Amino acid sequence: MTMDDRWMSRAACKDADPNLFQPRGEGDHIPKGQLERARAVCRPCPVRRQCLRYALDNPRLTTSGVWGGSTLSEREAYRKAAKAAKAREKAGEVAYG
């Protein structure tokens, strides 16, 4: 474990069944009941934000499953929104800069 991922040792899920956080079968679909149980573990987790940040910063390592309470499709939407916000910010700098 590196200095950057020490937060993982404090994760609420560290002793949980890893299959709870992964889709069953093909694709990224996680059945609603399973997703609710995974999110119930994530919700009070003391390192939930670090986990989500890790997933957002490492898309190639987090191509499926629940990370920081989020699904792959939610993380993709977060990344898309962040990219659009950055583009708007940059456009504003060009217009006013």
Put the structure in a nutshell.
This protein is mostly helical and 97 residues long. The protein has helices at residues 32-42, 48-57, 72-96. The protein has one domain (3-96).
Alpha carbon gap, first and last residue: 43 Å
Unreliable runs: none
Q: What is the 3D form?
A: globular
Helix content: 40-55%
* Beta-strand content: under 5%
How many structurally independent domains? 1
Family: Belongs to the WhiB family.
Domain 4Fe-4S Wbl-type: 12-77
Pfam family, one: Whib
Cofactor: [4Fe-4S] cluster
What does this structure look like?
This protein has one domain. The chain has helices at residues 32-42, 48-57, 72-96. The protein has three helices and no strands. By secondary structure, it is mainly α. It is found in: Cytoplasm. Belongs to the WhiB family. This is WhiB family redox-sensing transcriptional regulator.
Defining traits:
97 residues, mainly alpha, 3 helices
Write the layout of secondary structure elements.
Blueprint: H1 32-42, H2 48-57, H3 72-96
